[in-house]
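Quality-control log, excerpt.
Job 1 of 2 completed; input and output follow.
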Amino acid sequence: MPTPLTREDTTVNAITAEGLVKTFGSGEKAVKAVGGVDLVVPEGTVVGMLGPNGAGKTTTVRMLTTLLAPDAGRAIVAGHDVVKEPQAVRSKIGLSGQYAAVDENLTGRENLWLFGRLYQLSRQQASQRAEELLEQFNLTEAADRTLKTYSGGMRRRLDLAGSLIVHPKILFLDEPTTGLDPSSRLDLWDVIRERVADGATILLTTQYLEEADALADNIVVIDHGHIIAQGTADQLKAQIGGERIEVVVRDAEALDTAEQVLNLGSGGQCVRDDHTRKLIVPTHTGSKGLIQVIRDLDEAGVAIDDIALRRPTLDDVFVKLTGRHAEEETPATEPAGRAS
């Protein structure tokens, strides 16, 4: 059973959730999109929620941002209950969803001005804030063009700018870089880092393992509506062991010999892939182990095309936890047409 929320939880942590549940449909057609999520996001940190499409990420964000009411559980965001005090929560958060929430018939400047007015800024304040954000997101030259002429990356930048119109204490970014080119993605990473440096708290959902690794102080892995692991990137990687040596043998006929050599040094822990002619063996001695493997293979007369010492990646973690890669979709956990 999760530990009940305490007063300390709601003041030290920007976001605290306990046992969040959301089910769509009823009867035999009911689908539990989120099945009891417990989540803590300390103030001033970035927590990355990592999982494939359909895992329950977006549904969780929608509950935390008051867009969906949970069927069970409780969540406190910025010191306010998301069900009992939704207006207070909304006044202190920013949200950038998977799809740019902008009006394509308005210009970039007009969109940001409108966001400011909706947040009850004066006309002058809304105009001033729009100018600041247009400059920050490198959109000044396109400010007076309608969004119909914007690229996908420009729309995403404008949408993120809109979520920052009133300097929110807590920012929810739901797959903010999906569909962006690598350059635009790196630009958004810089913006996220700037927000954190200014004291913001960020909950970031993503399918991109390198994004979570680069930005998040802590990572939660969600699958089939449940959080299945959490910790820092290094802590998660440590769960699957230390460094490994990867060897690509030149000739397939030498695989048996190479495997025997590597098994002798590893106590039988060598993993073999005949298709790629690759052998993988764990090592606890780093570069010394690499040098020893090279010597042993040379003495055995095994020629190699490649050899490298590698640390575990988040992809390795994800495969071990879920049995598949992050880019693969989770079987449907919500009715068609709903993001997860």
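Job 2 of 2 completed; input and output follow.
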Amino acid sequence: MSIEALKERLPDYAKDLRLNLSSLASDITLNEQQLAGTFVATAIASRNEEVTKAIIAEFGAKLSPEALDAARAAAAIMGMNNIYYRFTHMMGGDYTQMPAKLRMSVIARPGVDKVDFELWSLAVSAINGCEMCVKSHEHAVREGGLTSEQIQTSVRIAATVHGVAVALDAEPAA
């Protein structure tokens, strides 16, 4: 399945998502690896098998095997970190001072340019709603030289991919 097939599966009420998906797939704000990795990581974070397969079919070949693994790793590690750090942020108190005691070595050595991995982690963290992680990764990508527009593009991709997953999930229930 491709992005075109995925767009065809979207119901008429989701035509805005179809249009956003088209425009973002050819966006030039991000380089090819950043764009493809953001799509892959956020598709995985959307937790919709159809979306994930279509996005990986479309963008997987645009990534080296190491970059594809790094995009997968960003989705996976943020799946863990976003839960943990969202909890500590909500609860405060002693929890914010306690060491996480969770392995996260992939963040230090992701196998791709650090700023790209941080960008993918930011987009996934936006989907997962972890304010602390979003702020941390946004700071890292800014320090890495990315612009507000590039960061916004990654979050627009995350929002659109997640919206597509929601629309497709709603269809069997209709």
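Post-run check on job 2. The two ends are 23 Å apart (CA to CA).
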